Amino acid sequence: MKKISQLSLLILIAILLSGCMYPESERVENQRPDEEQLASVQAAVEKFQETTDGLLPIKTRDQDVDQYIKYPIDFEKIVPAYLSEIPPNSYENGGLFQYVIMDVEENPTVKLVDLRSAEKIRELNIKLGANGYGPIAEQVAENVYKLDYKIMGYKEEQTVPSPYSNVNLPLVATGDGSIYIDYSIELNRILQEDKPDVKPGEDIRYLLVDKYPVLPAYSLPYTVNEKNEPEFLQKEVK
């Protein structure tokens, strides 16, 4: 019995040590949104804005960049004066998320961008031909296509983990060779479950923005059809 107890103690110590030795950036808690961390950063941004006559602690980006990654937070401007440390789940600390600010004019709000999507898009861009265009498998909407992954050297369709549920999201490409994440699955789920009042012709990605801390970055705009199903907003797809 004593030997069994000693063995159990050794196993417990090994488990604890393995947890301590696990890379900080790869710990599970650093790979998902954290409400306390978001609240802390939000408070720091507001304090910074109060003491700088309305300025925001953001990095400069080109004006034509994706609206969801347009205003990344510059932690050097708020740490340690307004925030004790950079969040463990942030890109700057090896985490999955880029902290950004949305609605900068009316109501600056701290949100997250899941960088797994960006990494997959970069990978696919490397696989594209020298002319920047990928092989097309089929057309899914006007100027929106599925790529032929077998021709690109993959054994199966490429996807990214959804930041909203346990499903994997497909990718699509437009005629100019740009690659985007297809959030139709998640938008359809919200339309079916929450039954929001949406109108054809409006960009419904705000449904994801309002409901979750993670933004639908690297996406095309969506609207609804006559069946209240998500579809690409064609006037915005170039």
Mean pLDDT: 88
Number of domains: 2
- Quick one: how many beta strands? 9
Could you describe the largest sheet, including whether it forms a barrel?
Answer: 5 strands, antiparallel
Strand content: 15-25%
Radius of gyration: 21 Å
Shape: globular
State the secondary-structure class: alpha+beta
Counted by DSSP, the helix tally is: 5
The unreliable regions are 9-25
What's the helix-strand series? HHEEHEEEEEHHEE
How far is it from the N-terminal to the C-terminal residue, by CA?
72 Å
**Helical amount among residues, as a percent range?**
25-40%
Provide structural commentary.
With 238 residues, the chain is an alpha+beta fold. It folds into two domains: 23-107, no CATH class; 116-236, no CATH class. The chain is 28% helix and 17% strand. The strands form three sheets. Strands 3, 4, 5, 6 and 7 form a five-stranded antiparallel sheet that branches. It has a two-stranded antiparallel ribbon with strand order 1-2. Strands 8-9 form a two-stranded antiparallel sheet.
Give the secondary structure arrangement, pairings included.
Blueprint lengths: L1 H20 L13 H17 L45 E6 L6 E6 H13 L8 E6 L2 E4 L11 E3 L6 E7 L4 E3 L2 H10 L12 H6 L10 E3 L5 E3 L6
Antiparallel strand pairs: 1-2, 3-4, 4-6, 5-6, 6-7, 8-9
Give a brief description.
The protein has 238 residues and is of the alpha+beta class. The chain has five helices and nine strands; from the N terminus they run H-H-E-E-H-E-E-E-E-E-H-H-E-E.
